[in-house]
Amino acid sequence: MWDWLKEAQLSPNELKNKLLLAKDRYGYTAWHRAAERGNLVALEILWGWAKEAEINPDELLLAKNDIGETTLHIAVKVCRVEILQQLWVWTEEAQLNPNELKNKLLLVKDNFGSTAWHRAAGRGNLVALEILWGWAKEAEINPDELLLDKNERGETALHILVKVFHEEILQKMWDWSEEAQLSPNEIQNKLLLAKDKYGFTAWHRAAERGNLVALEILWGWAKEAEINPDELLLDKNERGETALDVASKKNYEAILETLCVWAEEAKLNPNEAKNKLLLAKNKHGNIMWHRAARFGRLKTFWGRLKK
Asked: 146: helix, coil or strand?
């Protein structure tokens, strides 16, 4: 193909716009498609063509398809580690400056507001997350920009991880927050209590998904960071629900039991336990007892109250 292109004497502009960066009906270039299929050899050939035709190679690296994805987004989605590693080699070869690496590659967002970091979290791809974390450090990008960045739904990677649940990555996320030297205030307000567009924290989402292990991990983080634990227990989402409310609707008995144990551990005074937890009203004026009745959970709730 390359020999034929030479024979046809295509200009650099034609090579670039009508071949290498030509898009199909979905906005994909051949470069994107090669990444999607995990075809590293094809990517290497296309990269070589761009260099030989003296086309700026960062145009391949930073090109987006119709849903705003770069090759980095695609490689993360299809879990192609060898392509991710090679992409870093090419970014160095293209001599992208730190600002381009940050804003046009690592933190660039697709049409859903997701970075490659968010996509890797959604796929439970620890290796990809480790590679991206390494890139940020190597490029001297502030790593907390990865940890705290939100997608279009207002979710950090932590929100995403508790929904899909990957215990190992959750544990790793804590290591990274320590490595980034996040202050207790940042851990509390920008990570543990950061809210998505529906007012849900990662804590609420873990309760909603019945993910007791994730709740235990988050509870441990709060204690380790010396954050007042009742901030987790009493925090409300946009509907005015605490995690206890959320768990009661789904009848997650183990979570209800554990949350009540933690309320005792946090030494909530009887007034707080009564008015801010058990009798706290959501924005419709319903207390947890009403919601338990609505969802047929009165037996479970009454058993907990008697204890």
From this structure: helix
- Please, which pLDDT band fits residue 298 given cuts at 50, 70 and 90? very low
Asked if 187 contacts 177 with a C-beta cutoff of 8 angstroms, the reply is yes
- DSSP category for residue 202: H
Share of the chain above pLDDT 70, in %: 83
- Mark out the alpha helices in 139-274 (DSSP H runs): 144-148, 157-164, 167-179, 184-186, 202-208, 212-224, 230-234, 243-250, 253-265, 270-272
- pTM, rounded to two decimals: 0.83
Query: 159, 200 in Cβ contact below 8 A?
Result: yes
Cβ pair 226, 184 in contact under 8 A? yes
Q: Where are the chain's structural domains?
A: 1-141
Instruction: Give yes or no for a contact between 123 and 131, defined as CB atoms under 8 angstroms apart.
Output: no
Q: Please state, in angstroms and rounded to a whole number, the distance separating the CA atoms of residues 87 and 83.
A: 6
Domain 1-141 in this protein, CATH class: mainly alpha
Closest CA to 214 of 173, 185, 179, 249: 173
CA distance linking residue 289 with residue 301, whole number of Å: 7
